[in-house]
Every structure is written in C-alpha cells, then in structure tokens.
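Dear support,

I submitted the protein below through the web form. The confirmation email said the job was done, but the results page showed an empty box. After a refresh the structure appeared. I'm attaching both so you can tell me whether what I see now is the final result or a partial one.
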Amino acid sequence: MTGERLARAALTAIAEPGDALLNRIVDRLGPAGAVEAIRTGDVPGDLLSERLAGRLRHWRIRSAAAEPERDLEICARLGGRLVCPGDPEWPTTLDDLGGERPYALWLRGPGDLRNACLRSVAVVGSRAASSYGLRVAAEFATDLAERGWSVVSGGALGIDAAAHRGALAADGPTVAVLANGVDVPYPASNDGLFAEIARRAVLISESPPGVEPHRLRFLVRNRVIAALCRGSVVVEAEARSGALSTAAWTRRLGRVLMAVPGPIDSRTSVGCHRLLREDPSAFLVTRPEEVVEAVGRIGDDLAPVPSGPVLPRDRLEPTARAVLEALPGRGAAGPAQIAVKAGVDLATANGKLGLLAAAGFVERSAAGWRLTKAAKKPK
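What the results page shows now:
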C-alpha cells in the first residue's frame, strides 16, 4: 500500500467530496502532503484564505478520527477496492470536473469501471416516479444494455432503481453512484438491488465504507454521474428534482442532455418540460434509438425513422393495390367499372380480382365485387 493511496483513502474520510480548496492543496503538495498539511496546519501562504482556514479546522478534527487502513480492510472484505487517479480503472472523464474531481473512489463489484464508462448513458429522474416513468426508464435501460451501453444512475427509489433493474434484466452493465458507503444500503428497500449490482456490476462511492448519506452528498454525487457518461437522460423530474442537478452538470461538462416528455398535466414531468422549453442544448427523446443517436458515433448510430404498422394491403404489388382501391367503400361494383377506376383493362381487372378474392380482400356478390369485412377496416 503506497503512501499516496493511503492518503487518498484518508482524504475521502476527512473532507466532503469534490472540495475545490482541498484539490488545490492536493495539486500543490500531493495527497500525502495534503494530509500532513491538514494535520499540522502548514499550508503554502498563497493558498491560505479565511475560507480555507475554517475548512482546515474542520478537516483537522475529522482527520483525528480517520482510519484509512481500517476502511481499506473493510472494503477488501466486501470484495471491493479503492481506485485512484492514474489507476488503470480510473475513468479519465472524471478529470473534466477540474477542481471538483473526486480524491478517489470506493468500488464494490466485479465490473471494470473505466470499461463500463467508455460507452455509458445516465438514466435519472424522480424518486416519486409515475408508472409511466418507471416503464420508460426500465425499457430505455434494457434496450441500451442490449445495444452494449452501460446504464449509470444513483441507486435511488423510482427512476434510478427502474433504470438499474432494466439494465440487469438485459444482463448488461450498470453503475450505481452512491451518496454513502458501498456497504450501506440506502434506501433500505433497494437492499436486494444493491446486492445484485455488487454481484454482477459495480457500486461506487466517494465516501469510505460505513458512511451514512446526507442531503448535500446526494447533490454532490450528481456531478460524478454526469461526468462518467457521454450523456444523461432525464426521464421524469419535478420542478425541484435532484435529477435537474444532474442535468445542470451534464450541460456544464459539455455532455449530451436529453429529456423524455410526459403528459402535460403531470407534475413529475414539469422539470423535463422546462428543460425542453428553456434549454436549447436539451434533446427531446422518445425512444432508446434516439438516445444512441445522440451519444453515439455521428453517422453510424442514426435512429430509424418511426413508421406506422405494416398492413396486409401494403404488401400488395401496385396493380393489385390499384384494383383494390377502386372498389367502393360500401356496396359493390362490376368488373368494368372497377377496371376504369383503376386504370387497367378488363382482363387485368378480372385477374387481379380473382387474386384479391383468394387473399380475402374481396368477395363476389349478386351486384358485383365488394370488399370483405376485414378489408373495410381503417387503412
């Protein structure tokens, strides 16, 4: 265990995640030097400020209780590990956070974080999700996983949990970014989900094992969700939803921001509609294919144009379809009348009418040829 690794483990226990002041000290002194500066108060003069002095007092108190060796042992017993900047598994996209980048990440699960994030999409949204939102999140995640994309979310109730479950249902990779230790099941009702992710994918946290969540950490972890991915999809979001924090970070980092529309009178879609109305960088997406098109390779991952259902009459060759269209919607018509309207000779009309009758589109009556009940359904 190197001193730098041990120091980074200590920093995750001493300071709140992504503190720009602490990262400035780390940049200047290195992780071990930063820990020593916190404990002694010996910080380079050009970094000192009233704000930093207050933080140093707070960090010094917490450093006395930090036990990085114990945290690393607990994590190892869980089958976890600490990943630091420069490690092969460290996602370099986190460096886009600059002064607010993580000091290190605690991981639990067999999934390789860096590989999982090379082709990844965040699927986030409201905890109090509607049945519509839960269905969309699960379907998007399943389809994305089947297409080889990792699904990243926050492990919360509602949309997050539906996204993780959708990816797991397709036996695809998923990454849960937690606001607490990787051994703390929060919310408790997602305990089974976290256990499954730890068995098949990967849980990550900026906090050591045993750390309980609080409100600030939920907001701060959203920057990590946004930074890990090529883009974020907000499935549902109320007017004051934490998912909008992820959207803001997605925009700030220059990633692709997407939102799913909902019913106009749904409060759980107010935030999505606001993004689509007010943010010119936000894409409207209604299908997983559109998500892949937005975050994938230009020209290679285009979404197919939506089309209506293919009806039996659509498969008819042009002349037979012209004869079929020449029949009246009600009543019957003679072969000569049908031939004139279709623009074909009588022999051709009679031949096509016979074929159409065999296929169940028309039938002969005393008054001539008429459409069958099946053929009268809306075109």
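Response: this is the final, complete result; the empty box was a page-load delay. The chain is about 45% helix and 15% strand.
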